[in-house]
Amino acid sequence: MKGMNAFWGNIFKSSCNDARNTEQLLKKIPLFAGLGRGDLREIQNLAHCRHYRTDEVVFWEGEPGVGMYVLQRGEVGVFQDYGKGRQRELARLGPGDFFGEMALLENDFRSATAVALAETDLFGLIHPDLFDLFNRKPHLGVTILTALAGMLAQRLRRTNQDLQQMLGLPAGSGAPASAP
Amino acid sequence: MSPSPSPRSTVIHFDRRFLLFLFKAGLLLLLLLGFLWVLSYSRMVLTPLILAVLLSILLNPLVVALERRGLRRTLGVILVLVAMLVLLAAALAFLAPVISHEFKTIGSFIKEETPASLMDKLRNLLERHIPWLGSSGYTAKIVTWAEGFLHSLLGRSIQLLPSVIPVVIAVVLIPFMTFFLLKDGRRLKKSFIRALPNRYFEMAVSLLDKIDHQLGSFIRGQILVSLCIGALAITALAILRVPYFLLIGAIAGLANMIPYFGPIVGAVPAIILNVIARGSLKAALPVVAAFLLIRLIDDTLVSPNILGHSMKLHPLLVIIVIFIGGEMFGIMGLLLCIPVTGILKVIIQEVAWNMRHYRILRGGE
Predict the structure, then answer these.
(1) Mean pLDDT of all residues in A100-122
(2) What does CATH list as the number for A2-126?
(3) Non-local CB neighbours of A179 within 8 Å, separated by 6+ positions
(4) Is 0.85 exceeded by the ipTM?
């Protein structure tokens, strides 16, 4: 019965179809921060609105990644070795957070499992849809991919700093990624 | 491109959930077949729908190119369809004199020649050029076979006559359907995905995208190759002054969609007509040479460049499928059996790949 509710819930969604709400939410995502209203509407038209029940798995570690998700409502936990004895929680995400963005860049497998920890509404932005949009509107592709590259550069810099701290090296020594 | 194989074990374990999935997929397939069965009773809708789908796949890259230049999709679709209709009208206006001449000559040919007089001509031709056939009784056998073939051909032509009205309806329906398929295709796909349960969401998106890409390039390739072969055949037959070159060239282009048999279907009527028109068996040689040259151009230049090596089907499978398609659905089956087999091949390949990589199909959830 629960499954049936999720099924019909995905067909007759109300909150996901709220255009203004969605636009506001997308604006908060760093990836789409540089986009105008028209461009945001394009992204909004691509988004797949999905409703997840508590404890429902969004995607599994080791499965092929096809896109990223933006959390509209609810809570999502990101786990490694989910459901096994050595299960480890990597992150807990709330409304406005996003995850799975690495799937936009590479055709690889998911490095963790994402699970809805409450009744959750997500926007799924799928790699083929986004790249089809980039093909039609290259300026959008440049803006979004540049933002994504910036985010990855920031993460790399942070990882380098963590590594330096762990190894006890002075800040900025021999770390090309921290160069401007 | 599929990602590299998973480092995890790829052993397939079938469990109840997977069997349930198979049951649901089978039920869906049955529903789809039932829908197609209902549609098949109304060919007036099914044929234009299939043609509109093929046309929308063919025209989609042009609409995308216009979108890249900043045009809205609806406007792009309208522009592409209007341009296509204008081009079609221009081609018809340009070809109208040739077509009307061909129909007039066919008309006068039918008036002048009865099947019996045609058979007499064939008998004379064979006796004059290949006399040894007569002595062994083969001339009479060939003439009897040709007479039977001609009668069945005339019978089929008469059967086709009442389909003029559906053709007129199809001409109106096809652009209309193509417009909506091009304009709302993405929305239709999204609505379909929306109806799927969450656990199949990512897998379905990936599967649909791969099928969409492979199928699109295959169908666009097939249509482009057929257009090239049709144009080459029309040009060659016009140079050789073969009667009804336009009609036969167009048939040759269309028949090219049927592997192995298509080129023969295109060449045989041209050879027979040229031999009858010139009254000499030697007239077959330039037509055979022209079709061999077209085959060579197709195999070395056209098909490798347009189709590449995508969706290669095994020759044995192609032959079996052609026989089944022809036997079950006639000419439409012959033309559509290869694209349909291509679709099934992509679906089977992708489902097999997904079974190895998605937990829900491996029975791990």
Answers:
(1) 87
(2) 2.60.120.10
(3) none
(4) no
